[in-house]
Amino acid sequence: MNYFKKILRFARPYRLFAYLNILSNIFYALFSTLAMISLFPMLAVLFKQTEPVYQKPIWKGLSQAKDYLMEYLNYFVTVKSEDAGEGNALLLMVILVITMFFLKNVFGYLAMYFITFLRNGVLKDLRNALYKKTVELPISYYSEKRKGDTIARITSDVLEIQHSFLSILELIVREPLTILFTILAMVSISPKLTLFVFIFLPLSGFLISLIGKSLKRKSDKVQKEQGQFLSILEETLGGLRVIKAFNAESRFTSIFQASTKRFYTFSNSLLNRQNLASPTSEFFGIAAIGVILWYGGQMVLVEQSLQPELFITYMGLAYQILTPAKAISKASYGVKKGNAAAERVLEILETENPISEIENPIEKTYFENSITLQNISFKYENEYVLKNFNLKVPKGSTIALVGQSGSGKSTIANLVTRFYDVNEGEIAIDNVNIKQLSKKSLRGLLGLVTQDSILFNDTVKNNIGLGKGNASEVEIMEAAKIANAHDFIMQLPKGYETNIGDSGNKLSGGQKQRLSIARAVLKNPPIMILDEATSALDTESERLVQDALEKMMKNRTSIVIAHRLSTIQNANNIVVLNKGEIVEQGTHEELLSKKGAYKKLVDMQSLA
């Protein structure tokens, strides 16, 4: 139930609907019982079991409520029969029955009406909280997790919580109160018969509970496997070109089918166990009804200690207990399934973000002097990628980082943007440790253009305006012109309003990259980080993109991670890395004259 309590905090904004639901359920339970009790006077009139009573009875307290109601019924029927005949008395009894059932259903509807707002509100807020947490968690979190598993938690697991946990809110008041009121009515009719009935309840309850013991474990398997095949689907859609190019369709189809087969097996096991609950509880309920018929029949026919019409009403009440009892037993299975879903959802919500902010962080909106990386060391897992690394980037300068793959170039970009935190040392902007800055203000100072042009399934205009929500059309166009993107944008079917498709797949690689540059230009940050921004392009696209980059870097501080050395010859300082350490640095001419590591890299690319 700990998971249930944690999920319930999302219901607080909707507590008014919860209170109205509880109130409606109280009346529903009351009128459910009264509806069955109202059958008795109708049967008494129908079977002519009333006795003439001419004096109105006097109320003598709850202890004698049953006798009072019996006498009042006899008095009412006697008066009405003499005034308008027995048919009129019977009509009034029928109207009473219909009224009770009508009120029962009105309050039943109101209870469901109010709970709808609560359930859907919690569903909305839970999904919003999960999404917010998803975008807040660091990139390192998703290097260890499958995307499909996260999608499964936000979709199917949250729905499972709605169907299982939140259905309990309907049952907490309505079903127990219905059972309580019904039992009170049964006791008032015949304490002896009611005692006999409840000898069988603990036995049937114990047998029913045995069914639900393994439901949480089985449900957990189903939900995990769903995350697995969603991950396979997500990877398939992302890598469809490669799959087709390597004729790997059958391999991925086999992997997907193996996962759905496991899901099929786990789901069958779970649902068959769950489906056993309803018929089992109904069987035991009918068995109890059968025993009541036998024992109660003895009291009516042999002992004659119970009136026939009271016995029929009693049987109706006894049968009425079955519905809430079945609902409660079904809800207990729902809790076990919901526990597994809630555990998976709360695992994300309660994950601590290692990239945390200090209390009252500094909001820095300007850049004055320099970026300093002082004695920093960093590792993703066991081995250090950077070791005692030192670098100073003065304002207005362009610093290029070069080296072989795995030398730590992109890691520096990840650390400056604080996608990861350093293990040792510090990174400072204007002598302020970036850990003391708010993440929003830090990233507000930075512009990022990566090798992979990450665009979204939206218009050209909205993709460029991502970092500046209030940008005008003129500003967007100016940014596109600086990025050498305006001309090709105007040739698109709807210009800036053209949707570029999933990940911008309607555009070429060079066009996507120029949109990424336009996005960074529009943001207009004082510090620009370019992570191999031209390495994936053909010669023509590279020329256009390089020209755009040079325009963008004017009067800015830039950290350029370069694969193609021809693009960074004009950098103020070129830093050559090898296995996380600086092996040499200087201008293009200075490094060539040293005939060291940089000269070797240049020669290798010249030969290529």
Automatic annotation (TrEMBL):
SMART domains: AAA (SM00382). Its main location: membrane. The chain crosses the membrane at residues 20-47, 89-118, 171-189, 195-215, 283-302. The keyword Transmembrane applies. It is found in: Cell membrane. Residues 371-604 form the ABC transporter domain. InterPro entries: AAA+_ATPase, ABC1_TM_dom, ABC1_TM_sf, ABC_transporter-like_ATP-bd, ABC_transporter-like_CS, P-loop_NTPase, Type_1_exporter. The keyword Transmembrane helix applies. Residues 88-337 form the ABC transmembrane type-1 domain. It is a multi-pass membrane protein. It comes from the Bacteria. Keywords: ATP-binding, Membrane, Nucleotide-binding, Transmembrane, Transmembrane helix. Pfam families: ABC_membrane, ABC_tran. One of its GO terms (molecular function) is ATP binding. PANTHER family: ATP-BINDING CASSETTE SUB-FAMILY B MEMBER 10, MITOCHONDRIAL, ATP-DEPENDENT PERMEASE MDL1, MITOCHONDRIAL. This is ABC transporter ATP-binding protein. It comes from Maribacter cobaltidurans.
